[in-house]
Design goal:
By secondary structure, this protein is an all-alpha fold. The longest helix has about 30 residues. It holds the Pfam family DUF1516. This is DUF1516 family protein.
């Protein structure tokens, strides 16, 4: 259950980030601000579900515990990068570095979450 909630929250966050960027670039500041606040609420859902999943790994111990911690740190990095992109786009500042960070952190997170850790989609 927590895994599905976590994946759904991440998918929603990525969609909301793209909507925020589009609204900001088209000059719809009020809509962008509202959507950005909803995105921030979604971060809380991500943190809750991710924390629950991490707690399951920490309680179980085992060889995957270190990878679960690394995935959690990379997941926090993804959230920070998404927030940097949203804020910098609103301020009309350069976002190239934040996009690079987002892509790197997202690759690490997805590789560990789906490929390595138990409960992922890949064997």
């Amino acid at each position: 259950m927590n895994t599905h909630l976590h994946i759904t929250a991440w998918a929603l966050a990525i969609i909301l980030l793209l909507v925020v960027i589009v609204l900001q670039k088209t000059g719809k500041a009020k809509g962008a601000k509202i959507t950005h606040m909803i995105l921030r609420l979604d971060y809380l859902l991500i943190l809750y579900s991710g924390g629950s999943l991490l707690t399951n790994y920490l309680n179980g111990g085992g060889p995957m515990m270190t990878e679960a911690i690394i995935k959690s740190v990379a997941g926090l990095w993804v959230i920070v990068a998404m927030e940097m992109i949203a804020v910098r786009t609103g301020k009309r500042k350069a976002t190239k570095g934040a996009w690079i960070q987002l892509i790197i952190a997202l690759i690490i997170t997805i590789a560990l979450g789906f490929g390595r850790l138990e409960g992922g989609l890949l064997p």
